[in-house]
Specification:
The chain is α+β, with helices and mostly antiparallel strands and 126 residues long. 34% of the residues lie in helices and 21% in strands. It has one domain. Strands 2-3-1-4 form a 4-stranded antiparallel sheet. α3 crosses α4. The chain is extended and about 60 Å long. It holds the Pfam family WCX.
C-alpha cells in the first residue's frame, strides 16, 4: 500500500458516552472481573491442590487471580478459579507435576471424569 493513496477516515459511529461504574463501586467491579492477573476474583468454581513444584515456579506460570502459598522447598498450594470444574482440573494438569490435597470434592470428581474420558479415548485409538 502506498502512503500517497491513504485518505483520512472520519468517525462514522457514535461518540463514547460516559457512564457510571456498574453498581457504583469501582473496587467491587474490578474484583468481580475475571483474570486481571493480580488478585483473586470470584469464580463460579474455585479449588486448590498441593503441586509438587517450588512456589516460585508455580507463581511464574499460574493464571491471573491465582494464589500460590509456599508449602515446602519442593511444593506449594495453588488456589485458582475457573468457569467449570473440568476447566479448573485442566488448569492444574498444565503444571505437569504431581498434585495431592485436592479440594473440594467437585474438583476431585472433575479430575476423575477427565481421567475416564482420556482413558476411553486412548482405548479407542489402540
Amino acid at each position: 500500500m502506498r502512503i500517497d493513496r491513504l485518505e483520512p477516515c472520519m468517525p462514522t459511529g457514535r461518540a463514547f458516552d460516559r457512564r457510571d461504574v456498574p453498581h457504583g463501586d469501582p473496587v467491587a467491579f474490578v474484583m468481580s472481573t475475571h483474570d486481571r492477573d493480580d488478585t483473586p476474583a470470584e469464580w463460579p468454581c474455585r479449588g486448590s491442590a498441593l503441586v509438587a513444584l517450588p512456589a516460585p515456579v508455580v507463581a511464574r506460570f499460574a493464571p491471573g487471580g491465582s494464589t500460590v502459598e509456599h508449602d515446602t522447598d519442593s511444593s506449594c498450594r495453588l488456589t485458582l478459579g475457573a468457569w467449570s470444574w473440568a476447566g479448573l482440573a485442566g488448569l492444574l494438569l498444565t503444571f505437569d507435576a504431581d498434585i495431592t490435597g485436592i479440594e473440594p470434592a467437585e474438583l476431585r470428581q472433575a479430575l476423575r471424569s477427565l481421567r475416564t474420558r482420556i482413558d476411553e479415548g486412548l482405548m479407542r485409538t489402540m
